[in-house]
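One-letter codes give the sequence; each number marks local geometry. A record appears below:


***
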Amino acid sequence: MNQAVVTKQWPVTDGVRKAMAVTLRGAEELIPRDEWEQKLAKSEATGVPLRIKLGLDPTAPDIHVGHTVVLNKMRQLQDLGHQVIFLIGDFTSMIGDPSGRNTTRPPLTAEQIKLNAETYRAQADKILDPSRTELRYNSEWSDRLSSRDMIQLTAKYTVARMMERNDFHERFKAGTPISIHEFLYPLMQGYDSVALKSDLELGGTDQKFNLLMGRHLQAEYGQEPQCILTMPLLEGLDGIDKMSKSKNNYIGITEDANTMFAKVMSISDTLMWRWYTLLSFRSEDEIAALKREIDGGRNPRDAKVALAKEITARFHSPAAADGAEQDFVNRSKGGVPDEIPKVALSGAPLGIAQVLKQANLAPSTSEANRLIDGGGVRVDSAVVSDKGLKLAAGTYVVQVGKRKFARVTLR
């Protein structure tokens, strides 16, 4: 292996130590730490910003707050003056990332990738400074690789090393098919680092193998190897499982301000501090001071409100965050929000379960009846306990739980 090594020792100043603290905040692992410290020191001494890469495959049309953990770290490093590269994996999406999979991931169509990529870019701009972000697509260089180039690339890694990867190893032991094209995924992701000459690559803990591949291939191609920074997977609203749409414990960054604020307020007081570390742009000193105030007797709700407003303002506006706070207060007091959906229904008198279903307040009449049994349904602020209730013609404010409302006009 032809690995380039930084031999000159650059002075570690207070500025470098501060940058190291920013790098390590909330991080899972930095590989190797001493090399990154020297990269930071060299950058400070020479005035040349480091190239920091984050690659995301546009496999879904939107991003939730859990995805923003690595984007937040990118923004922190961007604010230190470094060049961040937001890489959209339009080429690698056609292969399908096997990370954490026990089956072959179905590849996306070119049209799906294009639509999702446009959405990813718009959503990433809510966190990164677009004017200082290098936006790239890995099809730029991957589409140009010839058959000869691909053979030369695959020659730089062994099957034995590839099979050390947990998901491949487990699938092989279980007799689950592994397609040859899946071996190409980590190689192509690693080649992205060669093409971009990155100094640091970020990713979730589940991406460690792929990130290390980039470091390996850079050395094989005679470049100074990148360092690796893995970020933890954010726990969702339940505080147990990682944030996921399939678990319904997520906050989508395109959700309306009121819903976003209320969802943050629903997390536990313990989980709140983990979210502060991974999602807030407050300094660690500010967070520590706030925690001391809570430990000293201040209401934890105050800290949660501050976090909810910060996250809501980031994806909407400060004014929207203020409005969401007021909406949350009104709801907690049993009040009705100023703006609720208006629904016109026919068929009066109509059973309450049908009203809930047709007003999109419950997915089915059976679920509507379950909500009534649980005391979660109100009509004009009065709790409904009779599943046989029928509403005559008129206009009603119908509420399910704390957050779902509709002004129903029944004819």
Observations:
- The chain has a mean pLDDT of 88.
- The domain at 342-410 is CATH 3.10.290.10 (Structural Genomics Hypothetical 15.5 Kd Protein In mrcA-pckA Intergenic Region; Chain A).
